[in-house]
Amino acid sequence: MLAYVLRRLLYGVVTVLGVLLFLFILFFSVASPDNMARRAVGEKASPKVIENWKKEHGYDRPLWPWQDPKSNLLFDHFRKALTFEFGKSDADSAPIVERLKAGAGPSLTLTVPLFVLGVLIGVPLSLFVAFFRNTYIDRMGLVLCVVAMSVSILLYIVGAQFLIGKLLKWFPISGFDRSIAVIARFVAMPIVVGLAAELGAEIRLYRTVFVEETSRDYVRTARAKGCGEARVMGRHVLRNALIPVLTNVVIQIPFLFTGALLLESFFGIPGLGSVTVDAIQGNDFSTLRTMVYIGALLFVVAQILTDVSYALVDPRVRLE
Amino acid sequence: MTPVARRWTSALGTLAIGALASFSATCTNNPYPAADQGRKVLYTAFEEAPKTLDPQVSYTTVEHAFTGNIFDTPLEYHFLKRPYTLIPGMAKSIPVAEHLPDGKIRYRIEFLPELIYADDPCFELGGAGRKTRPMVAKDLEFAYMRVADPKVVSPFVDPMSNVLGFKEFIERLEARRKSDPSFVTKPAHEQYAAVGPIEGIVVVDDATLDLVLDHPYPQILYWLAFPFSTPVPWEAVAYYNGKDGHPLIQDHPVSTGPYTITHYDKQARIVLEVNKNWYGYRHPEWKLPATVYPSEGEPGDAEMGRLDAAYVGKPLPFVERLEYRREKEDIPRFNKFLQGYYDASGIVKESFDKVIANGQLTPEMAELGIRLEKTIEPAFYYLGFNMMDKTVGHGGGEKARLLRQAMSLCVDTKEWLRLFLNGRGVPAEYMIPSSIFGYEASYQNPYRKVDLDKARAVLVEAGYPGGIDPATGKPLRLTFDTGDTTVDGILRNQFFVDEWRQIGLDIRIDATNYNQFQEKLKKGAHQVYFWGWSADYPDPENFLFLLDTAQGRVKFGGPNDMNYSNPEYDRLFELMKARDNDDERMRLIRELRAITEHDAPMIDLMFNEAYSLRHQWVKNVKPFGMSTPMTKYRDVEPEIRDATRLAWNHPVMWPAYTLAILGIAVTVPGIVTFLRERQ
User: Fold this and answer.
1) Subunit contact B158:A278, Cβ cutoff 8 A
2) ipTM for the assembly
3) Domain B376-610 adopts which CATH fold?
4) A-to-B residue pairs, Cβ atoms closer than 8 angstroms
5) Residue A84, pLDDT score
6) Is the CB of A93 less than 8 angstroms away from the CB of B328?
7) B 325-344: CB under 8 A from A
8) Pairing mode, if any, of strands B86-88 and B75-77?
């Protein structure tokens, strides 16, 4: 197991370095340091001001090592990421760590309930439709799931804002308030939208796994022994179908921290997803690097944890 | 039904009824706390988070919406008068240019007495227990030194470089920092003191500061109305340095202005409240131009209710708190305005036809008590030709000049405005907008009236009969460069291309991303393009410099993206720039206009017309056109707002009840079947 984990960690390091290199190439192929400076200090800034900004932010150096092997932006990019020196935002010079701290709360306020409710509702509902397989309930569930999966999240967002916020007036159309007393009012609608957008796919996936599992020999044996259907589904089928469920659940965990880009943006939630969108729009390379780097690290770690958890929940799985 | 099933059904039913009851009792779409009701709060949305509120750095419209309310400046703009008129702010009067015996020019700023900063912990640096202190002239000198400091990266270095000794101060500061690396660790005020004062910024006494120039620069008065000309206490810069848990000065401005920041979460919510140390608040009896509601405006203001006797002469500000909430998307923002949760709004394009019909509010909107305000902004849009290009620019000589004139004769601005901006705009005959000196309503640019026959004739004269390039025997091919790759943008630009196709020209759109387009402009790799300029200050110089050689983009990095260069234009421009508004200046502007008309380096397109909406409970609104917020003149009637919001926002609960019943109707049989199976 240790050798396996180490090997996966090594792959992970290569993956993260690749992500960082790809980010650098992609970013600087669409934006130059001059563009970054202009976005930061204003379109009307004079060349002298642009040069000042570049000097103050370290962008007065060449991009590539072959232009200057001692001092270039590529090496600086890797050094800062690998030493976790997040530094200051290129857009407004604010410390990025502070931005992360401020954004983590709102993001988790949205993503954690969304994640927990997704599991709590998704798994039982899948069991429910699997239990009623080949009945009208199953077929109705299937149709609803396909419809839910086919609709773009943008339509859910705009539709919910129109229907729930504007017509029914149940919740504010958008906005956020950090006060505990009223926070639920602001995140209720994004959570409903997020659930509607993700549940269809999850129920479809889990149902397939559960239905497949119900045709196994041990299920027949359990029934032959006189176990009731609830016990068969809840104890035997659920436990043996945990691996694909776990994969799907654990892989979502990194995204709890990186926030929900569209939901945060449309509902005005000042979370980390919103920070990322702002960084892209504002040519803010330092912030973008931090967000992409953290996202990549968390993703790699989650992948390894998923693999390890296979072995924990299923003794048949051996990691070598 | 079995007893177990009954128990389950009963439990589920009770749970559903309890949840519904609690939901209907607490659900509301009001994003604000109930305690706000009845208070004079102005609710505004902001789309983009301000990058900095450091007065010496902040330059964007987004930031000006806040800094304009926080910072006091020596001069301000009159709320109602147009053309734009300066009034004294912190200064006792508007400085006048004094010609000194040595040929220099001096502007003396005399400050009002008893200008005091808002209470702030930073003042403890000046003495234990101190919460505030009076503003002194040295604070404005310190502010201008910050503009000069390359580490501050102020975009106002260029205009301030007109002040004597400004550039030398920068050189001294840079040299000292280079020679002594430990110098930079000292507080800014100590560094500035160590390298000596700026020659042209003279602190006469605590209430008087002189700005000395070696050449005429009347525009400096407008810069005195910019937030970067606000005095800054050295304590604020030393204290708010991002260390020891203190925020940066850019996130914690310290000011003497009418409002002060009490909550700054720029990603979500910003709150400004009345600064009780503001001189206008402490001395309403002074009745100064910048501290009371004006008694005169431009014709039509009285009819529009902007000179209401209930307000004229009353001390400012009227609103006690400014509440800004971030809304990144247009549609939610506009819907919240329609629910009464924002007091004012622009119009989203998706709803334009629902809101506006024939340039007026639709009856549906008017019934809601919504008011429409229109204003022609001092923002000029044009189609430019890169004069460095050999086909359309200087290198093409007379042939290129005639080609530009022919192309100008094809563009139907009115139709373009109708198709793409819902008619919101005024066709431009020349660069200067109507609210600025130099505008002449009677002027008609002979090349801005659509005349295809004349265009074809001019094209023949240019050597491109029927648009055919004799060198290739095919239609003359040009490139229209744009940084707008959206469908809307392509369609907008395709309109021009189609217009030029009518005279036989073959123009291709080259759409890149915005950054790449900027690179093209920087390198002079563009040919024909659409661009605009919005005024920093209301002076014709701020528009006419778009064709000044010294402002050329490629050579000097200035806003002359056309890279137009004409020595006679430059000579006349310098003369015009150095004069106050008078007949001679008008004559010079006419000469400049004639040169532009003849050379046609640009096709004057339009001035933007802004439409804004406000609710009936918002009073004293006059769109300013430039970015200065003017919020201290606004008032709200919270009683009307509260009642209207209540009437508009009753939650509709029957769908919740229906959903609950449906849910139970679907779930219960399932549970019953499930339990039956289990047994």
Assistant:
1) no
2) 0.85
3) Dipeptide-binding Protein; domain 3 (3.10.105)
4) 166
5) 94
6) no
7) 325-329, 331-333, 335-336, 338-339, 341
8) antiparallel
